[in-house]
Specification:
- The chain has about 100 residues and is an alpha+beta fold.
- The protein has one domain (about 25-90).
- It has 3 helices and 3 strands; from the N terminus they run βαββαα.
- The protein has a 3-stranded antiparallel β-sheet with strand order 1-3-2.
- The longest helix is centred in the C-terminal third of the chain and has 13 residues, at about 80-90.
- It is flat, with a radius of gyration of 17 Å.
Length: about 100
């Protein structure tokens, strides 16, 4: 999502950071209510990171028992790649692109 996780300083030329790789990317279109329901159910066990201005979010599982993939499936959240595939297919149909 383009977020800086950690940076060096003029005193240290190395960094350490914890990165949670249990995540999924979703477009906002059609998912607003589903994302609200997901956050309502899982509360602090899920982080929905919105960097702004790009129309998509990162769904990060903070749970030891439920993965981000399982959360997305449970709420039928359309993933970002699927959204783009569906959008491209629509545009390529005859009469949809001028």
């Amino acid at each position: 999502m383009g977020r800086v996780v950690a940076t060096t300083t003029n005193y240290f030329n190395f960094i350490t950071a914890t990165v949670n790789l249990d995540y999924e990317l979703a477009h906002l279109d059609g998912n607003w209510g589903k994302l609200r329901a997901l956050k309502n159910k899982y509360g602090p066990e899920v982080t929905i990171y919105d960097p702004g201005k790009i129309g998509s979010v990162m769904i990060i599982s903070e749970s030891d028992s439920v993965s981000a993939q399982d959360m997305v499936k449970e709420f039928d959240i359309e993933l970002l790649d699927h959204y783009f595939d569906r959008s491209r297919a629509f545009r390529l149909r005859k009469g949809n692109m001028k």
